[in-house]
Amino acid sequence: MSGEGLSVVTNTSDRVKELCEVLDEVLNAGSLTRGDGEKLRGRLLFASGQLFGRKARNLVRKLSKHVQSNCKGLSDETVVALKNIRTILTQNLPRRIKGQLSSHLHFYVDASYDDRGYSGIGGVVYDEYGNMLGFFSEEVSSDLINAIKQDGQVTIIQELEMLALVTATEMWCPKWNHHRFVAFTDSESVRHSFLKSWSMNENNNTLLERVFTVEEKFGCQIWLERVPSQSNPSDYLSRQVVAMWHGMAKTEVNPEATWKGLSISLG
């Protein structure tokens, strides 16, 4: 379909059928040896790579935890992950490569945290020529901070940095679907988690799942890079509520509604 500026990549029906049969056998047995688990993991990663990949890779991490545990019996967490992977394979939604991917946009995100002062998230998006297309700048309420904080947790800057990334993804991927995004954060931890497709922090992992779901739904390809704080324009947007910037009004967002909408367990 090159005349339409469109190509698609997907798995063969035989591969999907075979992998689903293997998954059904494992789920029915309720157990999986380490050796068989390693083989299954490799095959699932290959198959998910033919699709959008990152969402399935996040789920395969649960299978990896099972393999590393040396336990034969499947935990509830592993069962749910395998069922979700099976659903993704059964849907076999093609990875659609459209002409718009030849153009790209940049967005920057940041968060600030002060348990005795101002905490907030901010983000700004530019076209490939450096023209600003929109921004958000919101305070994070003390109620949300208390909801996110776990017992004994000193700071939640990682969660807020990831929340800023989710907010930008949810806002701009639907608006510019099938575009490439080069995203920037000054959080090395968020960048590493994004590149791995999972995080040991369960709240951050849930936020990542949301990023990958939106990215896949709207056919966007996001590359996340680190930018020094002093070179991050959204640093200013995260440290105070900015209503107008360079003659443009901010887009209203609600961090608390976004967090609650993800159905995250708050302990």
Report on this model:
The chain is α/β, with parallel strands linked by helices. The protein has 2 domains: 2-96; 103-261, 2-Layer Sandwich (Nucleotidyltransferase, domain 5), CATH 3.30.420. Helices cover 47% and strands 18% of the residues. Strand 8 (244-245) and strand 9 (248-249) form a beta hairpin. The relative contact order is 0.14.
Mean pLDDT: 89
Terminal CA distance reads 49 Å
The name CATH uses for the topology of the largest domain is Nucleotidyltransferase, domain 5
Number of helices: 10
Share of helix among residues?
A: 40-55%
Q: What number of domains?
A: 2
SSE layout:
Blueprint: E1 6-9, H1 13-29, H2 34-49, H3 54-69, H4 76-91, E2 95-98, E3 104-112, E4 120-126, E5 132-139, H5 142-148, H6 157-172, E6 180-185, H7 188-196, H8 202-217, E7 221-226, H9 234-238, E8 244-245, E9 248-249, H10 255-261
Parallel strand pairs: 3-6, 6-7
Antiparallel strand pairs: 1-2, 3-4, 4-5, 8-9
